[in-house]
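Lecture notes, continued. The same structure-token format from the folding unit now serves as the input rather than the output. Read the line below as a description of shape only.
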């Protein structure tokens, strides 16, 4: 790890040595003073350890497979049907994690982690507590008319029109999914007999600022869907070398049709859980050099 710069001011003001590079991007702070290789002062385990102490938890532990459910439909269904049970070893201050058995594997689900910062905050803590595979299934708007909603897109890369990814990776247009993780996900979906579309998404922090021009440019670029988490999650995954798989559940045309945001009679829960059940067959870890290892039994 790169050692902290002793010349940096602790008051929040750039030191003389670092000021020129910081001030060069003063009009765009999101691009200023970013060093993705530098260690963070604040860590997930710092906050989790304190939360564990304050809540009197016996351990910090989550299932090996975890799910982000931004709309909260899966969690509400698990509670309504009695299939889910609240984790007693999830210390996060900002969310609750529910556990369910899928294909004989215990899976953890956190609902309503909407947007890039919240999704990555939860992801950081999940992987600090034993998560080995994270699946995100987020509601999204249709950009390119690839099919009639609702349908799922396996996100292969995401346009970085949010802020969180720039704290994890150097600036670039897209955050790319790991080729090894994608390959393992494709194989698991194929084995499960599940067909999904594949392609790029556009990750935004401001869904109510999706202008006609921005939508047209995204469509021209071949982007299939717009959502709020994937670019940040893939940037986190690349920086931390963790397996993350993102799905965009295309349910709407951003209010441009009469009937929108329809996921089906059960809010798409059964279809979403089928995706997760297929992915529990993925390897427990992905070696960045050798690809998938340690298959799940």
């Amino acid at each position: 790890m790169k050692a902290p710069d002793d010349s940096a001011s602790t008051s929040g003001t750039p030191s003389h040595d670092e000021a020129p590079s910081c001030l060069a991007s003063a009009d765009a702070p999101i691009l200023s003073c970013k060093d993705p290789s530098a260690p963070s002062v604040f860590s997930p385990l710092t906050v989790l350890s304190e939360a564990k102490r304050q809540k009197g938890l016996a351990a910090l532990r989550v299932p090996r497979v975890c799910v982000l459910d931004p709309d909260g439909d899966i969690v509400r269904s698990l509670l309504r049907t009695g299939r889910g049970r609240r984790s007693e070893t999830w210390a996060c201050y900002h969310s609750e994690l529910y556990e369910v058995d899928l294909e004989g594997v215990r899976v953890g689900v956190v609902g309503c982690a909407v947007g890039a910062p919240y999704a990555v905050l939860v992801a950081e803590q999940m992987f600090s507590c034993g998560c080995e595979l994270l699946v995100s299934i987020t509601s999204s708007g249709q950009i390119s008319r690839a099919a009639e909603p609702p349908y799922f897109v396996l996100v292969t890369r995401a346009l970085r029109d949010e802020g969180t990814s720039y704290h994890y990776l150097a600036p670039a247009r897209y955050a790319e999914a790991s080729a090894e993780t994608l390959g393992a996900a494709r194989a698991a979906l194929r084995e499960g007999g599940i067909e999904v579309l594949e392609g790029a998404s556009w990750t935004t922090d401001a869904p109510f600022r999706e202008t006609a021009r921005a939508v047209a440019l995204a469509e021209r670029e071949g982007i299939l869907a717009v959502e709020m988490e994937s670019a940040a999650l893939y940037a986190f995954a690349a920086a931390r070398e963790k397996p993350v798989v993102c799905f965009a559940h295309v349910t709407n045309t951003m209010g441009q049709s009469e009937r929108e945001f329809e996921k089906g009679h059960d809010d798409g829960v059964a279809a979403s859980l089928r995706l997760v059940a297929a992915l529990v067959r993925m390897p427990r870890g992905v070696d960045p050099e050798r690809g998938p290892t340690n298959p799940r039994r």
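Point for the exam: The chain is about 30% helix and 25% strand.
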